[in-house]
Design a protein that fits this description.
Elements: H1 9-18, H2 23-40, H3 61-72, H4 89-100, E1 105-110, H5 116-129, E2 133-138, H6 145-153, H7 169-172, H8 188-195, E3 203-208, H9 216-231, E4 236-243, H10 247-250, E5 261-265, H11 271-285, E6 288-289, H12 291-301, H13 305-321, E7 326-327, H14 329-344, H15 349-360, H16 364-376, H17 383-390, H18 394-406, E8 410-413, E9 421-424, H19 429-441
Helix pairs in contact: 3-11, 3-13, 8-9, 11-12, 11-13, 12-13, 12-14, 13-14, 14-19, 15-19, 16-17, 16-18, 16-19, 17-18
The structure holds adenosine-5'-triphosphate and magnesium ion.
Length: about 450
Amino acid sequence: MAGWNPFTRKAAMKKSRVDPAPAALSKPVASETTRRAQELNPLPRFNTTASDQVSGRGHDRFSALRAKLRHAFTPSQPVGDRKLFAGREEVLKTIIRAIEDQRLHVVIYGERGIGKTSLMHVLTQAASEARYIVVYTSCGANSTFDDTFRAAAAEIPLLFHSGFAPTTTEAETGASLADLLPNEALTPRKFGDLCAKLTGTRVLIILDEFDRAGSGSFRRDVAELIKNLSDRLGRVQLVLAGVAADLTELVEHIPSIRRNIFAMRIPKMSEVEVLQIVANGERETGLKFDKQASVFVVEVSRGSPYIANLICHHACHAALDGQRSSVYAADVASAVDRAIIEYEGRVPTPAQVHVRRVFDQGRQDALAMTARAALAGDGTFDALDIEAASEIALRKAQEAIDALVDERLLEPVPTEAVHQRYRFTEDGLPTLIWMIWAQRNLNREAAPVRATAAAS
Ligand SMILES: Nc1ncnc2c1ncn2[C@@H]1O[C@H](COP(=O)(O)OP(=O)(O)OP(=O)(O)O)[C@@H](O)[C@H]1O
Ligand SMILES: [Mg+2]
């Protein structure tokens, strides 16, 4: 029989019939009952206040560590703090050279979560230090040329316009280029004309999430602006960043401006860079990953800064749940369990069920090999990539591919290359497969978790 539940209507009515309370007293009695019930069965609470103070209740050294953890590994946010930005020195150096030495416009592209926005934040800081005026815009489905570039013009002080001496009233009263724009719709030519008059400064306009801008005319106008600015040796440069497998996917009409842009695909992180994410988090939190745990993070993340942050975040929480400040391999394994649950929401259920069935049929090697090859590059691969990455015979690699094409988990990619290339039929599948593989193969006992806090 179900136990007594003080919150059911029936129970409350029964109680009031037996013991009718005067109206004035009924409220305190009810809140006393609620308080007792809450003591017996407390609901989860926030540990930190909105002003980032650790709440006094149940405060211990682990709640302070949890608060630091929120800042140290941020799987759901780009990195804004330079101290937490790992690696990418060469990428940043190359972009800065293209902007500074070649005066080119820049297009940054790459898969979801590879670190484009984080890179844009760090680039913004570096350019601001060099006194560039940096305008950062995150594009949306409804972005228009008019809105975007009017907002950009509003951030460029009029005192840099060659027609206004710094001592003129307009320049002194904080007016901006936006004040010179006509009322009718802004065109690339009009904005370009205005930019050509700038002097004594350089402007970087960053259009992040450019792939989200749905309108073809917006993209076309941006391409036209790049052409216009380049032809006139303007002091304004554009940086576009977005998700794309290749450059043409990101920028329509690119042939006309190919010479004027520097395009760069953001590569996967190296092992050293992923280890730097771990080390940065250790420094910020005071938690320590043991050797095997770090190796697992590298293995599972496969060069994705997003997965590295996600796994480190959950692994650190698992360690704190165990009252430890040392993070062990078992914590990383339980982080993988958590990450899989989160990732499952991003892959259609039939595809997940299908993959698990193929795992259960003992064909995990074919799945792991192909997922690893997909994750190593832009999501497409051929048998040679598998041969190289997994050190197996080419024939075996092709057999693995053919088996998964039969299962409709892989499909051929139209290509003119000599070797047929393939990709997974769902975007999220390679990561999900790789994590399920890790879940089944990480040696959870590699570094047994010691039982007491003292051990850490
Ligand atoms: N250099 C880095 N050092 C540490 N963490 C990073 C770095 N780059 C990215 N990350 C982490 O990776 C995740 C994804 O980063 P970011 O949002 O910058 O990627 P993105 O390519 O812009 O993603 P999207 O395609 O969804 O816009 C975030 O958790 C971020 O904290
Ligand atoms: Mg982004």
